[in-house]
Backbone:
């Protein structure tokens, strides 16, 4: 007898192989909620500083035509030679994720006819930039800069103003910085200097590393910021730029220094400072911690900039359109501020915590919560929690001085409870009046705290 056919088996669900979610790309990172208070503080400082000095914000596109950077930043620079994220789009256009801001600023100044506005035109930006560098502490492939640019004037007071703003920016972030300054002169005086420099290093060619021998041929100025072994001693004997400066550059530089002296901006002269971009003329500068503490801190330049009088004419803008600018590296400023302990507390500081009990209270709670928000009072909540004890514990952890409690009974009565978290005292108030009463209680609590703080401060030390 043929065996009874067995019931057809349900088709087996295809086995889904769990693959790992791709991680962030090397040199790229997420900025998590705990870091936001620090970023917000930095954004506040940037905004208030720029407003005070009359800089208007500009937002730049992330992608530009590759030729903008090749021409602006310079083909022989590290950035253009090996660090740009460049690709060809579907339409065959070669484009690059911006590696810096100044070339785009010069483009925007020309494109929007800003040379017809009263000069100087002062612009600031806070943007992310992209460079394919070897990631390490304080060096990423996506990073952010606070940029300042003053275009359309060669007045040395603007060089000083931009430098001063970089220093004040760091100071407002709680950092004590010193500025290193140098002058690269104009292209003609620099040419004479570079010829002398090449002559000098050719005499010592055998002592140069392979990289520096390449620099000697392609970009000899970069030898001055070479960190290769043995270069410190060699550089010490090299001719110095300052001796080759033309009279105009020299007097411009002296004026910049006088303004810095007057404004009490701490600076040191660094004859070897050249910076990595081709467009600089006359003033160049870098900002670093005055007392870095660690070796890592010492090698971490927080920002820099300089004058770029040749860039706008190079892009086809009006001849003699001078400009000066700077960029501060925001991740590095945050690293330094964290080490210095000057960052704000990452936790959200709400003075009021909202507790609700039961479904009806939760529903009414959403509306009451909105009333506080409209009145500009920052209220924390844990709507997803049902238990009062758990909610009060969170309020306690957040150090909220007031909790407001809405239960079933209060919903029926049209009331709400205000609890002083320090004393535990509670009062039942009309829900329509709660916002005004809480505002009053907060003023009382702040006054109480101020008196207590004053008492602690006048205590004689033992
Ligand atoms: P630069 O545009 O090269 O003059 O750089 C100005 C500042 O931007 C530097 O001093 C750094 O603080 C910051 N910066 C430049 N490149 C990076 C990077 N790859 N990662 C993080 N910060 C950077």
Residues:
């Amino acid at each position: 007898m043929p065996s009874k056919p067995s019931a057809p088996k349900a088709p087996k669900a295809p086995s889904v192989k769990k693959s790992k979610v791709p991680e962030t790309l090397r040199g790229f990172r997420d900025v998590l909620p705990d870091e936001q208070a620090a970023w917000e503080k930095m954004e506040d400082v940037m905004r208030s500083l720029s407003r005070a000095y009359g800089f208007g914000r500009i937002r730049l596109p992330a992608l530009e035509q590759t030729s903008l950077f090749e021409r602006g930043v310079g083909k022989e620079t590290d950035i253009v030679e090996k660090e740009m994220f460049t690709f060809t789009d579907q339409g065959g256009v070669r484009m690059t994720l911006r590696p810096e801001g100044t070339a785009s600023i010069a483009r925007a100044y020309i494109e929007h006819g800003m040379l017809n506005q009263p000069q100087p035109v002062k612009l600031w930006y806070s943007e992310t930039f992209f460079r394919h560098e070897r990631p390490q502490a304080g060096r990423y492939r996506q990073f952010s800069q606070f940029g300042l640019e003053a275009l359309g004037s060669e007045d040395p007071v603007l060089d000083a103003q931009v430098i001063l703003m970089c220093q004040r920016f760091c100071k407002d972030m709680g950092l004590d910085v010193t500025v290193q300054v140098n002058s690269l002169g104009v292209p003609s005086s620099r040419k004479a200097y570079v010829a002398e420099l090449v002559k000098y290093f050719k005499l010592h060619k055998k002592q140069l590393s392979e990289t520096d021998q390449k620099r000697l041929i392609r970009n000899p100025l970069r030898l001055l910021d070479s960190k290769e072994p043995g270069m410190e001693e060699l550089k010490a004997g090299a001719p110095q730029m300052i001796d080759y400066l033309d009279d105009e550059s020299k007097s411009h530089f002296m004026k910049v220094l006088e303004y810095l002296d007057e404004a009490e901006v701490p600076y040191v002269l660094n004859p070897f400072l050249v910076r990595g971009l081709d467009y600089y003329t006359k003033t160049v500068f870098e900002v670093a911690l005055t007392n870095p503490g660690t070796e890592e801190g010492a090698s971490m330049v927080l920002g820099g900039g300089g004058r770029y009088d040749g860039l706008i004419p190079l892009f086809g803008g009006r001849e003699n359109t001078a400009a000066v600018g700077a960029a501060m590296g925001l991740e590095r400023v945050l690293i330094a501020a964290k080490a210095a302990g000057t960052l704000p507390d990452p936790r959200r500081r709400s003075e009021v915590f909202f507790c609700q009990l039961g479904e009806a209270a939760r529903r009414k709670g959403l509306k009451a919560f909105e009333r506080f928000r409209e009145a500009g009072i920052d209220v924390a909540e844990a709507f997803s929690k049902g238990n009062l004890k758990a909610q009060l514990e969170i309020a306690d952890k957040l150090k909220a001085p007031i909790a407001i409690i809405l239960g079933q009974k209060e919903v029926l009565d049209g009331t709400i409870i205000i609890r002083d978290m320090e004393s535990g005292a509670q009062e039942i108030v009309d829900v329509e009046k709660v916002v005004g009463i809480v505002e009053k209680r907060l003023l009382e609590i702040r006054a109480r705290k101020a008196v207590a703080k004053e008492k602690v401060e006048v205590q004689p030390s033992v």
In short: The chain has a mean pLDDT of 91. The pocket of adenosine monophosphate is lined by residues 100, 131, 133, 138-140, 143, 145, 276, 301-304, 327, 329, 331-332 (CB under 6 Å). The chain has three domains: 33-186+246-340, 189-237, 352-448. The first strand starts at residue 56 and ends at 57.
